[in-house]
Design brief:
- By secondary structure, this protein is of the alpha/beta class.
- It has 7 helices and 5 strands.
- The protein has a 5-stranded parallel beta sheet, sandwiched between helices.
- Helix 2 packs parallel to helix 3 and helix 6 packs across helix 7.
- The chain is globular, with a radius of gyration of 15 Å.
Length: about 160
């Protein structure tokens, strides 16, 4: 929370500790970007993602997980997550990802993209998505920075 509030272009507008609370908080605040834990005490973060996006299809949600080998990564991306972060992500990279997702980009960590690219054969990804994953996996990160962004309503961290 403090990390986000210390950014001049970000504001933390809500926090939740359960999936049900996360859905309710999202409806109340409709944040620009949501950080959503994959593992919640009452339900899967993917179910929360699906519930929010069924009502708010433009919702920009970044999933958080503790380990890069999480089998749910592909499911959450297929369900419309805009980004994927490990909880160990350095703070400076975290806020960078929030800004990029806010700007409409998708962000997947290099180590996660590498694993996804390895298990692509049985997935229904387009050749363009596969190209992008392989591009990211090989270390060619999209690193364009366009300066500070104005966040309309703020960030909700779940």
């Amino acid at each position: 929370g403090a990390l986000v509030n210390n950014q001049p272009d970000m504001e933390l507008i809500g926090e939740a500790s359960t999936g049900a609370e996360a859905i309710q908080q999202f409806k109340q605040h409709t944040p620009d970007v949501t950080l959503l834990d994959l593992r919640l005490p009452d339900m899967s973060g993917i179910d929360v993602l699906i519930a929010i996006r069924s009502e708010f299809p433009e919702a920009r949600i970044v999933m958080l997980t503790t380990f890069e080998g999480d089998v749910e990564i592909q499911r959450s991306l297929a369900a419309g997550a805009r980004g994927y972060l490990l909880k160990t992500t350095p703070p400076v990279e975290l806020v960078d990802v929030i800004r990029q997702v806010h700007a409409g980009k998708k962000r997947i960590p290099q180590e996660v993209a590498a694993q996804l690219a390895e298990h692509i054969a049985d997935e229904r990804l387009t050749s363009r998505e596969i190209d992008v994953l392989q591009h990211v996996a090989s270390g060619n990160r999209n690193r364009d920075r366009r300066g500070a962004i104005a966040v309309r309503r703020g960030i909700i961290q779940l």
